[in-house]
Specification:
heterodimer; A: Rossmann fold; 6-stranded mixed beta sheet; 40% helix; B: alpha+beta; Ubiquitin-like (UB roll); 5-stranded mixed beta sheet; two-stranded antiparallel ribbon; 2 helices; globular; Beta-grasp_dom_sf (chain B)
Chain lengths: 316, 92
Amino acid sequence: MRFGSLAESVGNTPLVHLRRLSPSEDVRIWAKLEDRNPTGSVKDRPALHMIERAEAEGRLRPGATILEPTSGNTGISLAMAARLKGYRMVCVMPENTSAERRELLAMWGAEVIPSPAAGGSNTAVRVAKELAAEHPDWVMLYQYGNPDNAGAHYAGTGPEILADLPTVTHFVAGLGTTGTLMGVGRYLREKVPGVAVVAAEPRYDDLVYGLRNLDEGFVPELYDAEVLTTRYSVGSADAVRRTRELLREEGVFAGVSTGAVLHAALGLARKAAKAGERADVVFVVADGGWKYLSTGIYSAESDEAAVELLQGQLWA
Amino acid sequence: MAIDVRIPTILRTYTDGAKAVEGSGGTLDELFTDLESRHPGIRARLVDGGSLRRFVNVYLNDEDVRFLDGIGTPVGDGDSVTILPAVAGGSA
């Protein structure tokens, strides 16, 4: 495949049948390898789409500063695009994210403003909104509320999945900005009657939730519950266990949030197999494991030891 | 008395610091009422006007009850209920 620029090579990622993890020939599990995008995550799709749309609509002009709350991947994608296009990039990122993410952002020339660990991404969003108010000339693309985030998946990820696997019955992805689920979910619902759109939501340990106030919660503006069939909460232990299982059984080296998504996908596959129904379950591998290597979870002696290593970290 | 209920840090002031408590009831609504009898004040933090508060997420065996029957969702012995604040997450 030949492309005119790195940006043009985004998308058209492989969809891989995972034979060993699939319950049977009738109930198949498929991995959509979004780590094959230019900066190694699914976020290249919304990042580039949001920038291109903002340019087309005149919201983003040469020399502008882009501001974004991000726990890593979107910031990395935006920073890459910003460097290629000559924008300045400022990220607000929770301080308890992995060292690799900070290093990658620095590598692409982004400035990182750390937000307190307590409150995780919620706090990063709040801090970014405050900065946006102080710097009205900065452009916040705001992935949590920008329809072009979901639009990237409606136009790209969704059609790719349907073209590769017209028999798809389930789509499973992680719930963060909700962009992937809203975009792919809307597309598939229009084309595939009865398709299930399922969210896997990360559940952290107490350290991360610690000081969070129930009255100041956060629901991304993009979120529309109508698009989802259901939503599962997956804890760190299951996420880590499945991440290691995916590597061991199928050779797919994925980030920890993918383990959480796989956990939900396997649950749906098991349910279909038990009911004697045919199923083609597609799940999203949001990124590779590179950014989480320093945690030591991939080479830890046991799942329990690996879970211990991830304590207090934001892994999605 | 055999529904396991996991309590988020922010609500442990109602449970004397306990991370998990047990309760009973045929639905989540009844379970929350049962919890209220031993942990006064907790119900109002979860429910408002007959439905879950906006930034409160409740999971029955890890499934979001908003996609089941909300606070009318049937529960029973051996079930696990997790209460969590709504968060922004994912590989954002």
